[in-house]
What we know:
Helix content: 25-40%
Number of strands: 18
Number of helices: 12
Shape: globular
Order of helices and strands: HEHEHEHEHEHEEHEHEHEHEEHEEEEEEH
Structural class: alpha/beta
Amino acid sequence: MELYRKARDAGLIREGDTAVILYDLDRLEARFLGLCEAFGAQARHAVAIKANPLPPVLAFLAGLGAFAEAASLPELHLALEAGFSPGRIVFDSPAKTVEELRLAVTLGIALNADNLDELARLAAVASELGIAPRAGLRLNPQVGLGRIRATSVAGGYSKFGVPLEQRQAIVGAFRRYPWLTDLHVHIGSQGCPLELLVAGVGAVYDLAGEIDAACGGRLQRLDIGGGLPVAYRETDAPPTPAAYVAALKARCPGILSGRLEVVTEFGRYLHAPCAVAASSVEYVKRQKGHRTAVIHLGADMFVRECYNPRDWPHKVRLLGPDGRDKPGRPGLWHLAGPLCFSGDFPIFRARLPEVAPGDVVVIEDVGAYTLAMWSRYNSRQMPRVIGARGGRFAVLRERETPRDLIRFWLGPQPPSAGQ
């Protein structure tokens, strides 16, 4: 693995770094610019912060001209800290508080209301502040579920959005609130085929025409969410952004004509293939019918993978202590994480050459929904994160120390007496 070897040779991987994460920022830039080229100048691409909230990565994307999609109050602050101006942030959350709405409206951040009650709350906030918000309404297009139920949000029932079957109420909301100018939809992530993504966007696009007819052409923005899958398996063949755009244009003529500003919210598509995780092998255990390599990353980083390995596989490689691909006939190995529960296997039955302590396991496509979902179980240290850009390396986040973990569990301390 070239990236790992170069980082090690540059002295960025130290003896105590039992695990590291390496981000290829050049590849991230190429994927973002590919989206821009496929969708054209009339689209804006808001990167989903939840997929990868590392501030240096967010700042890098802000420098490329990306927008940001925040799903919580801290994610709003992460976006602002990373250099996204309020006008380039979209705020999505199904549980926005009054204070969060006030902040978004005051700063001029666009937000998507998740339900009709939130619109009423937003109207009260807008009246109190005397500021017309930039707002959209999230809809559930009710077009069905993808292969992975837990990441599909467009079935007959969903915790998100107003069901499309409530058409009259939706149109009524646009009549009631003159500042309501946008529509938002998201169908799901990883496991949703192209046809399902397009059907969901198409259903909302059709309703946009009805709303425009009823409200004098007031709609300004259509936020189509994210959802483009990535290839975790060698046999996966996900659609390209160009294929997605072509299918959207066929189903929704005029969607990218410039009449509406189109916003996307890709996270996994942008980030997943841009990072690898590398862990040293600490022990090798053999028993009848099983060979196990104990590594330093498990369900702390690979939460979904350990609990649902069928839906969340990863390609894996084995390097020798010299950082080069280890030769040998492949066999079946279990990669066991360091946590104290029996399901802590980030990869079960991996095909690898003979594994020995001191070897390095490299897990690919870890740029999205891995470090972002880090678990504090067993209080494991989050590893050093290294970024590569133009052949140079930099530390994006330092490895946590035991003292960092103590501070985390202590939490913010109350002010001392007299302060």
